[in-house]
Design a protein that fits this description.
Length: 263
């Protein structure tokens, strides 16, 4: 998927302007930046949910608006920050929504895909439980399973997962489990775009990091090249230190207070 010079305006200001980036199959691309940087706006453009005022997003060289909805839904799936479901729905009901574009939600192939997805998020035993009885973190994992079920299709077809703050509501262990799952998807050939606030997660799990600032492109490249202290300090307006912890393969970006030490 390719974003070509995207521009999105709202209330006489640009929420996104002049941003171009390619989401490659088999990679995890982390999108980071302060609040209001345009991260979720970019993801919504990639999802086809927000038509840009300038530029376009293409899949296989075809603009998203020209794709049939079901065909597009079989190729890309979205995990939103907030996902409402009707009262009384079970976890299996929610995950089966991912099979709608495939037309087999009630068939055995759809049921198998639903159970595989729940198993991958470690909620296999919760299929019959009502979603509202689960914790916020567990509910987030159910919606992640819906995305997995949606992308469960024929091999050899390029697919994309768009994750808008997938670590929201999750404890530290589940944050890392979710990002390891994102890496697993990339190893399976899926292109993964993840909007993240946690810079250490971006440093550890992303192949590339896109840094946005005030709706514009700031930097794109390997985590070690993008997440350097001077750049982060300038973008966030807070002094950063980026130490290499003993035995770590990736840097850890930490905000720093000169008087009190690292925050």
């Amino acid at each position: 998927m390719v974003a070509h010079s995207l521009g999105v305006s709202s209330r006489a200001r640009w929420r996104l302007r002049g941003v171009s980036v390619t989401l490659r199959p088999g990679e995890v691309l982390a999108v980071v930046g302060p609040n209001g940087a345009g991260k979720s706006t970019l993801l919504r453009c990639f999802a086809g949910a927000l038509p840009p005022d300038e530029g376009a997003v293409t899949l296989d060289g075809i603009a998203l608006k020209q794709w049939a909805p079901d065909a597009l839904a079989r190729r890309r799936a979205v995990l939103s920050q907030h996902s409402a479901t009707p009262p009384g729905w079970t976890c299996a009901d929610v995950v089966s929504l991912g099979r709608t574009p495939h037309g087999d939600a009630r068939a055995s192939t759809g049921t198998d895909a639903v159970m595989r997805a729940l198993d991958r998020v470690d909620l296999h035993g919760c299929a019959a439980r009502t979603l509202s009885t689960l914790s916020g973190g567990q509910q987030q994992r159910v919606h992640l399973a819906r995305l997995l079920a949606q992308l469960d299709g024929p091999r050899g077809v390029t697919r994309f997962a768009l994750l808008d703050e997938p670590s929201t509501h999750l404890d530290v262990a589940q944050q890392h489990r979710t990002m390891r799952l994102a890496r697993d998807l990339a190893h399976e050939g899926v292109g993964v775009l993840a909007v993240l606030h946690e810079l250490p997660l971006a440093a550890r799990y992303a192949d590339r990091v896109l840094l946005l600032s005030q709706g514009t492109f700031e930097a794109l490249g390997r985590p070690r090249d993008v997440l350097d202290a001077p750049r982060l300090s300038r973008v966030w307006g807070v002094r950063f230190v980026v130490p290499w912890l003993a035995g770590a393969a990736h840097p850890v970006a930490l905000p720093h207070d000169e008087e009190e030490g690292t925050l």
